[in-house]
Amino acid sequence: MCAAVYVLSTVTGYVLTSALLLKCPNLLHRRKREAFRSRHISHRGGAGENLENTMAAFKHAVDLGTDMLELDCHLTKDEEVVVSHDANLKRATGMNAQVSDMVYAELPPYLCKLGVTFQRECFCEGGEDKRIPLLRDVFDAFPNTPVNIDIKVNNDTLIKKVSELVVKYNREHLTVWGNASNQIVKKCYKENPQIPVLFSLPRVLQLLGLFYTGLLPFVPLKEQFLEIPMPSIITKLKDPNRLTRSQRFITWLADTLLMRKTLFEHLTARGIQVYIWVLNDEEDFQRAFDLGATGVMTDFPTRLKDFMDRNGISKLQ
Fold first, then answer.
1. Exposed / middle / buried, residue 274 (Cβ in 10 Å: 0-12, 13-18, 19+)
2. Cβ atoms of 86 and 92 closer than 8 Å
3. Amino acid 18: pLDDT
4. What is the rounded CA–CA span in Å between residue 73 and residue 82?
5. The pTM is what?
6. DSSP states of 95-145 as a string?
7. Distance in angstroms (rounded) separating the CA atoms of residues 231 and 291
């Protein structure tokens, strides 16, 4: 009887302590310093309004007042850091070649028309700017704009050169980098721990495990940005009638587990920003902000700006 009472009191104490720290994490953890806060994030510069990852796209987004540019990096044969999503150039340029096999001067221009990955049956037709830019071009043009860098391949030289550029342009306080791969994120952090990192996919799964077991409030986190998809948007990217029952269930389960307001509030209280991608309609914008997400990543920066302006959502909230 005494043992049972002891166990019950111990469990009750743990649950109450966990609940308290979930709501008030700063009792245990020092809040991470936020050099900037991003509410409006332009995916590949705004791939629905200009050709993705081009200087024209980035300029358009910055002129609109975006809080952050999201982009992707690869390394050319002559070790130039280029802004490009795909390792192979076929989809974007029509040339079946690897970025890593070509010197920068030989890279072909983008096609005139590119599909928008996160908008079903949507294409973007670009203007005159079809050049694949260098990362340093972005840093030169937008010295005060935060940049979110997806390191697309596990390449030590790429990671080192990106870090060198960030340091050269004094952008450690304006940059976040990482990848879904835990190996890449670990290498990024080791190369330069002054540049904030994203949660990798394994770390997101670990984060959820800690959250649902009540252990999250007790565990320190080195990451400063949680960047996750909204699983429910799959029904907008594919014909809902073509989704199998198991696909529907997995989508519902992932969405239920991941889109948790209590989790987002706990992380933001610890100074960890939560970004949800890639959202392209007002219904999803509204849901993300209602859930407490710090920011929304979109292919349509004008659409998101108009929504935020109409609803009084600012980056200061």
1. buried
2. yes
3. 76
4. 6
5. 0.94
6. ---BGGGS-GGGPPPPPSEEE-TTSTT-EEE--S-----BHHHHHHH-TTS
7. 14
So what's the pLDDT on residue 317? 45
The CA distance from 273 to 288, in Å, is: 13
Euclidean distance between CA atoms 59 and 233, whole angstroms = 28
Euclidean distance between CA atoms 147 and 297, whole angstroms: 12
User: How far, in Å, CA of 40 to CA of 117, rounded?
Assistant: 19
- Any idea where the domains of the chain sit in the sequence? 38-309
Cα–Cα distance, 116 to 157 (Å, whole number):
30
- Compute CA 311 distance to the chain's CA centroid, rounded to the nearest angstrom: 23
142 vs 118: CA distance, rounded Å: 26
Which one-letter amino acid corresponds to residue 295?
G
Q: Is-contact 81 136, C-beta < 8 A?
A: yes
Query: Which residue bears the tokens 């700006």?
Result: 305
| Ranges of H-type helices in the chain | 2-23, 55-64, 90-93, 135-141, 156-168, 182-191, 201-213, 234-237, 245-258, 261-269, 282-290, 301-311
User: Residue 71 belongs to what H/E stretch?
Assistant: strand 68-75
The reported pLDDT for the residue numbered 239 is: 81
Report the alpha-carbon angle 12-14-18, nearest 5.
120
Inter-residue contact 59 to 127 (CB < 8 Å) = no
d(CA 269, CA 74): 34
Which amino acid, 6? Y
| Cβ proximity of 165 and 139 under 8 Å | yes
Altogether, the residues listed in the chain come to a count of 317
- Given a cut of 70, the residues of the chain with pLDDT beneath it are 1-14, 315-317
Pairwise CA distance, residues 196 & 185, whole Å: 10
Regarding the domain with residue range 38-309, which homologous superfamily does it belong to in the CATH classification?
Phosphatidylinositol (PI) phosphodiesterase (3.20.20.190)
Q: From residue 228, give the alpha-carbon distance in Å to each of 3, 28, 65, 207, 275.
A: 43, 25, 23, 12, 6
